[in-house]
Amino acid sequence: MKRRLSEKEEALMQITWDKKHVFAKEVREALPDPKPHISTVSTMMRRLAEKGFLKIEDFGSTHRYSAAISMKEYTNTFVKPLLAGLFGNSIKNAVTFFAEQEEISVAELKR
């Protein structure tokens, strides 16, 4: 686990974090259209396991996956340092940036 995941890998991890235990078919169903082929999802899940992000349970001809790293641990290890570098270790600077870019609404800021 030495590098930040790609956007597609993070999408698979998000589904896994949300559902706790998943089969590749369930992950594919949760992805937005156009959905990748099931073999593509299975390959990506297997690679995430090889990288140490997922655990695999073998059920004969299929596998069930679960997260080997929590979302909090991933965020603290990969995302937080990125934001710290970009925004001078300031949450205020990060929030101000996204508010100015209209990436976050006033209601979302209040939450």
If you average the pLDDT, what whole number results? 86
Major sheet details: 3 strands, antiparallel
Derived structural class: alpha+beta
Extended strand count: 3
Low-pLDDT stretches are none
Task: Please state the CA-atom Rg, rounded to the nearest Å.
Answer: 17 Å
N-C termini distance: 32 Å
The shape is elongated
Q: What percentage of amino acids are in beta strands?
A: 5-15%
Order of helices and strands: HEHHEEHHH
Approximately how much helix is present in the residues? 55-70%
**If strands are numbered along the chain, what order do they take across the biggest sheet?**
1-3-2
- Number of DSSP helical runs: 6
Topology:
Layout: H1 7-19, E1 21-23, H2 24-30, H3 38-50, E2 54-59, E3 62-67, H4 71-87, H5 91-100, H6 106-110
Antiparallel strand pairs: 1-3, 2-3
Walkthrough of the structure:
With 111 residues, this protein is of the alpha+beta class. The protein is built from six helices and three strands; from the N terminus they run αβααββααα. It has helices at 7-19, 24-30, 38-50, 71-87, 91-100, 106-110; strands at residues 21-23, 54-59, 62-67. A three-stranded antiparallel beta sheet has the order 1-3-2. The longest helix has 17 residues, at 71-87.
